[in-house]
C-alpha cells in the first residue's frame, strides 16, 4: 500500500492558488494536499511493516529478511515506494506483526526458526557487532525506543528502531526476540472538528465514519509507536506445536527487562520469536504526531551560527561599500575634474593607474572559456535546485513524514532546471564573444553532460559496489535505467532548449572596447591564488555549523528538519560569496591584473576545499566507528561529489557578482 503522504510541487502550487482564490488566511488549519489521517474503528486490523536493517557504523543497509526473522503467513510482499525511498535504500515489506485497534494482547507466539546453521549464526553475530537496527513502521511512523541515559539516569534518550541483539559481557551474543510494543492512539472528536472540516473532503469522511461507527464515531488515529525489545529464553520444545499468534506462557516475557538477556545465538539452536502490544490513548493530535521524531536540540547553536554569519556579512558589506562609495566614486570624480584624462602631467598619470588602465583588457575572453561557461551553467542549476528544495522543505511540503520526498523533489528540480543550466552556459558564452553565438551547441551539449556525467559515473561505481555486497542501498536495475532515461530524455533536451533560447536573445554588451593586443600583467609580489584559497574561509565560516548537522543526518541517521535555519544560512552564504568575489576582483584590478574571470569563480568556489577538509575531520573524529572499506568508499565518493556541487554553485555566485561589479564599474566612466 502506497504511503498516504505524497506531497508534490503541483500540490504546493494548487495550495497557493487555492489560498489566493478563496482569500482565506493561510494560518487557518488545513491538511497539505495528499496528506491525510488514516482513521481506525475499534477492532480494525493494523499491520506493521519492516524497513531495511541500518547501522550507524556501516553504511550498507540490508533487507530485513536477510536474517532468519519470522515472515507473515501469507508471504512477504513489497510495499509501493517512491523514487526517493528507493534511492535512499529503503525496502519496505510486510511483517507478521498484526494488531487489532484497542485490543491489548498477552505475549503472542510468532514463529520458531529452524536450527541455525553456522553461517546463519555468524551472520547474526556480525550484524550485532556492526550495531544494525531493526526498523518497524506502523501507519508510516517508525518505531521509537526510549533508553536511560547512562550519565543522567533521569533522562531518557530517544532512538529510532532497536538493535538486532546485544553482545554480553561474557562474550556471548543474544538476539532480541520478544517485542513489547505500545501503540499511542488519539480519539477523534467529530462534534468539535466537523464544523471546521465541513468544506473539505476530510469533513465528509468524518461524517461518513460517524454514521457507521456508533458511539465511536470519530475513530482513532495512530500518533505514536514505541518498543521495548527483550531477549527471552523461550523453551523451543514447548512451542513446537504452536501456531502463529497463539498465546504463549512465559514468565520471562511477562517480565520483559531489556537489561536481562536469554535467547543466545549459537549454531544448531532454533530461535523463538514473540511479541505483545498495548494501546495507550494520547493527547497528541494527528498533525503533531511527528513532533517527537523531528524535535532537534541545539536551537541556540543554530542562532549562534546565523549571528556569526551576519557579522561576517556585515564586515564584507562594509568593505564593498567602502570600495564603491569612497574609492571608486572618488577616482571617478577626480577623473571627471581632469576632463576625462585629457590633462597632462604626473597627476593624470597617477589618476590613470590601477583598475582604470586595464579598461581595454578587462572584458577579454578568459582562458578555457568553454569550460568556464559549462561549469557556470551547472552551478546555476545546482544553486537553483538547492534554493527551491529548501524553500519547499521549509514550507512543509517535503517533511520527513513523507519518506523520500526530499530526494524525489531534488531530482525533479534538478531535471527541470536543465533549462537554467543551458541558458546560463550559452548566455555567458555569447557575452564573452560579444554577441557571437557560434559554437553554442557545443557549450549546451557539454553543459548537459559535464556535472551530470561526473555524478552519474560516481553513482554507478558506488552502486556496483552496493550490488556486489547485496545491500538494499543499491538502486534496482530498472530504476537505474529510469534515471538514465530521465537524464537523456528530460534533462538533456531541456538544457539544449535553454541554450537555444540564450542564443536567440540579446546578449549583455560591454561598456568598453577590448584592445586587439593583450596588456602585460605586472609581476605580483604575492600570488593571487593565495588570496583565492584564503577567501574560502569566509563562506565556510557561514555554513560549517549547519554542515555538522547535515553530515550527522546523512551519516549518523539523525533527523534534520530545521529548514528555516538552513534557508537563512543559504541566503547569508550567497551574500558572503558575492561579497568575497567582488572584493578579490577589485583587488586584482587595482594591481592591473585583468584576468578576473576564473579568479572570481574560484574565490567563492574555494569553500569546497574547506568542506573536503571538514569531511576528513568528521570521518576521523565523528565517524571513527565506520566499519569496512565499502562504507569508507561510500563516504569518500559522496563527499567528493558534494564538494564539487558546492564549488560549482558558489563559484557561479561569485562569477555573476563579479561580472555585475566590473560591468557597473567600467560603465560609469568613458575611457579612450
UniProtKB/TrEMBL annotation:
Give its localization.
Endosome membrane; Golgi apparatus membrane
One Gene Ontology cellular component: Golgi membrane
Q: Does the keyword Membrane apply?
A: yes
- InterPro entries hit by this protein: EMP70 (IPR004240)
> Per the database entry, which stretches of residues form a coiled coil?
none
Keyword Thylakoid appears in the UniProt entry: no
Q: Which key words are in the record?
A: Endosome, Membrane, Signal, Transmembrane, Transmembrane helix
Q: Which residues form the signal peptide?
A: 1-29
Regarding the membrane, this protein is recorded as: Multi-pass membrane protein
Lineage, top-rank taxon, reads Eukaryota
- Membrane-crossing segments per the record: 303-325, 370-398, 404-430, 442-468, 474-497, 529-555, 561-584, 596-620, 640-666
In the record, the note on similarity to other proteins reads: Belongs to the nonaspanin (TM9SF) (TC 9.A.2) family.
Alphabetized PANTHER family for the sequence: TRANSMEMBRANE 9 SUPERFAMILY MEMBER (PTHR10766:SF142), TRANSMEMBRANE 9 SUPERFAMILY PROTEIN (PTHR10766)
Protein name listed in UniProt = Transmembrane 9 superfamily member
